[in-house]
């Protein structure tokens, strides 16, 4: 089978520098460039398009965190890395569902165990935070997101929610944060 | 700031005011916003007071997690946006498994087989048509009459609420027609059926708390009977991240599904299962669902057990009990793509994983409820 990837795949160096410099374009091109490879792998190993999307996005997150964490060395090819991570994630999912685990391969691979363990730890934290935020309720959820994620000032938030002064908004934010912390640390 | 620190160093910190100040100092300290002297004083305090030290560590863990959460959420949003630009169906047709030998033969000798087959079909059709000419006409007529009857028998699930409408906050007059809609984005884009708002003079949406907001029609897709509304009311505060996900793949017959809708003024749950992958008269753009719905359910989300939105309730067949139709979510995504990215801001993409997965039905509904709206339509 000759399924060549499209020619617009950025070079490994471009991707690493792009991600370090928060370039949306580099990430978009990376995403589009290697998705067919993973789609092919998943479709031919008893998965569907949604599985391919989930697995691929998880792998990109792992790569992203690794590059951002500064410990990505271009010792291997990016393509091999992404493929190996996806393969590892998919293998785990299949064995959880006790499906067959002899995979048909399409690319070279390398060991990614260490990164996977790190990622599972991070993913747990992410899910904890996500569930804490979901259970937080309004208006807390929006206040916290506006302040800590969208980087709005207390002044902006105070105006947005119609608080009479910034101190009231601060008190509200404090209470919200305490609740969120409680939800986060208890879960 | 240093005065504040001194104030805190001495008393045992108990009341909230001080706790609040301590936390804001910890935050400034962690973000490197304290001056050198202040930072030193604070480090001294940390050394002397283990409770403070513990708080600093906990707050750091927490803030780091929150920061990670924010950056991963943004990354997921971005990836979902790029993902929409990829023609996955075309790719999977090219890259998917080609299971058998027969498929390969087919691929190789496609042209030859096609010519041979069309010749055979042509021959047999002409013979058949010569023989059956008279009878065929009659059958065609019969079929078309059947169709007309069937068409009359599906009806839209619009609710006539002229009689029993409660007076809304903003709107004084009772609405002429009611339906259901659900949020597509946190900034006020709402999906419903086209037939709900068809011919509308003005459209209002009401949330589960009873607050009413003015909305305008942003986009209609009459082919699939879909409409996207945008809330334009100033009093509308953005919702938080959508708890559900749009599932674009066709799901299997027999899967349990449910819907929330507004056949009356409070949300009502309807429970059922997918009974066919095609809708009315073999329409591949919708499902047939065995679910009890009433007028007012039109435009409601059809949700699977994992909390994915898989379709939009659109109508039911009159003569068959429980045969409801729902437009597949795939076509909703197509409609969404018609809106320019600018106007949707960056919140158009759905969560990668539905956060409702694994929760009990009642918990899911509690989380979904704020995102389902009653649509009130006024006509002149």
Describe the structure using short key phrases.
heterodimer, A: 187 residues, mainly alpha, Rna Polymerase Sigma Factor, Chain: A, Arc Repressor Mutant, subunit A, 2 domains, disordered N terminus, B: 380 residues, alpha+beta, Thrombin, subunit H, 3 domains, six-stranded antiparallel barrel, six-stranded antiparallel beta barrel, 11 helices, 15 strands
Beta percentage of chain A is: under 5%
Total strands of chain B: the figure is 15
Whole-number radius of gyration of chain B? Answer: 29 Å
Topology of chain A as a string of helices (H) and strands (E): HHHHHHHH
Query: What's the domain count of chain A?
Result: 2
Beginning-to-end CA distance, first to last residue of chain A:
49 Å
CATH fold type of the largest domain in chain A? Rna Polymerase Sigma Factor, Chain: A
Could you give a short account of the major beta sheet of chain A? none
Task: Please give the share of residues in helix of chain B.
Answer: 40-55%
Please state the second-level CATH architecture of the largest domain in chain A. Answer: Orthogonal Bundle
Describe this structure in words.
- The complex is a heterodimer of chains A (187) and B (380).
- Chain A is mainly alpha-helical and 187 residues long.
- Chain A folds into 2 domains: 12-111, Rna Polymerase Sigma Factor, Chain: A (Orthogonal Bundle), CATH 1.10.1740; 118-186, Orthogonal Bundle (Arc Repressor Mutant, subunit A), CATH 1.10.10.
- Chain A has helices spanning 12-20, 24-43, 49-68, 78-96, 113-136, 140-149, 154-160, 166-186.
- By secondary structure, chain B is an alpha+beta fold.
- Chain B has 3 domains: 2-82, no CATH class; 110-155, no CATH class; 159-378, Thrombin, subunit H, CATH 2.40.10.
- Chain B has 11 helices and 15 strands.
- Chain B has helices at residues 2-9, 16-30, 36-48, 50-85, 88-95, 101-108, 110-153, 194-197, 329-337, 341-344, 361-368, and strands at residues 154-156, 159-160, 177-183, 189-193, 202-206, 212-221, 226-231, 245-246, 256-261, 268-276, 286-291, 301-304, 308-317, 323-328, 372-378.
- In chain B, the strands form 2 sheets. Chain B has a 6-stranded antiparallel beta barrel.
- In chain B, β12 and β13 (308-317) form a beta hairpin.
- In chain B, α2 packs across α4 and α3 packs across α4 (50-85).
- Chains A and B meet through α2, α3, α5, α6 and α8 of A and α2, α4 and α5 of B.
